[in-house]
Design a protein that fits this description.
Strand content: 35-45%
Mean pLDDT: 82
Order of helices and strands: HEEEEEEEE
Distance between the termini: 21 Å
Low-confidence stretches: 6-11, 21-25
Helix content: under 10%
Structural class: mainly beta
Number of domains: 1
Number of helices: 1
Number of strands: 8
Radius of gyration: 16 Å
Length: 106
């Protein structure tokens, strides 16, 4: 799952790195939900969150758990809602292929 991809770094660490951030603020959201939130879909099967979402990128495929039978297969996207909030959403690749909200970018 995406949680192991989260990095925390102090301001001191960034200062030791020449003032450069150790992670890209665009790849992962600032706020990760404790539990992904199921999203409703429209008649075409596209996700809705306070209205239609605009998907802003091709999917980032994340797979894990295949070695122990706890398969997780997700396609992650950045999306923008009607209030212009940037969201991190995913679609399950295993049936029933639900859409979820997993994080919010700062």
């Amino acid at each position: 799952v995406a949680e192991p991809g989260v990095v925390t770094a102090s301001a001191l660490t960034a200062a030791q790195n020449g003032g450069r951030s150790l992670w890209s603020p665009f790849r992962r959201p600032l706020w990760l939900l404790t539990e992904p939130q199921l999203l409703r879909t429209d008649m075409a099967g596209l996700p809705i969150h306070d209205g239609p979402l605009i998907v802003a990128n091709d999917p980032e495929r994340i797979e894990t758990g295949w070695w122990n039978g706890a398969d997780v297969m997700r396609d992650y996207y950045t999306a923008v809602d009607a209030r212009r909030a940037r969201l991190w959403i995913f679609r399950e690749r295993l049936p029933p292929n639900h859409w979820f909200l997993h994080g919010v970018f700062g």
